[in-house]
Specification:
The structure is a single chain. By secondary structure, the protein is an alpha+beta fold. It binds adenosine monophosphate and zinc ion. Zinc ion binds next to helix 1.
Length: about 110
């Protein structure tokens, strides 16, 4: 998508602190972190929300999760753990309409989230 912020980051038109990349997935530091570790994982393919998933997207969603686990392990988070958050639609707190997961860690995390 031409104007989508995360598509532009995936195309390297806008700089980001990239922590993981493969053919289909990109992970980078959130510009406004809410915890010592706050990363965003996106499919390079533009998918606006979970409601826009199409047949065949199972693979990229699975790979997103594998990338999360790989990065979390590399960052030594296996013992302390992390939170994986996906906001969906405005009512779910979604601001950027390119599907993404927040990986949040490094401080005590309350439940339920606000
Ligand atoms: P959401 O509310 O789930 O759509 O989250 C969007 C996230 O994108 C927020 O946590 C923002 O801080 C983050 N964000 C916005 N612009 C950028 C950017 N240029 N680089 C990195 N993260 C960004
Ligand atoms: Zn996009």
């Amino acid at each position: 998508m031409e104007d989508c912020l995360f598509c532009r980051i995936a195309r390297k038109e806008i700089p980001a602190k990239i922590v993981y990349e493969d053919e289909e997935i990109l992970a980078f530091k959130d510009i406004n972190p809410v915890a010592p570790v706050h990363l965003l994982f996106i499919p390079k393919k533009h998918i606006s929300t979970f409601f826009d998933l199409e047949p065949g997207d199972e693979l990229v969603i699975g790979r997103l999760h594998r990338a999360v686990v790989q990065v979390a392990r590399e960052m030594g988070l296996e013992e302390q753990g992390f939170r994986l958050v996906a906001n969906c639609q405005e009512g779910g707190g979604q601001l950027i309409f390119h599907l993404h997961y927040h990986l949040i860690a490094g401080r005590p995390l309350q439940w339920p989230p606000g």
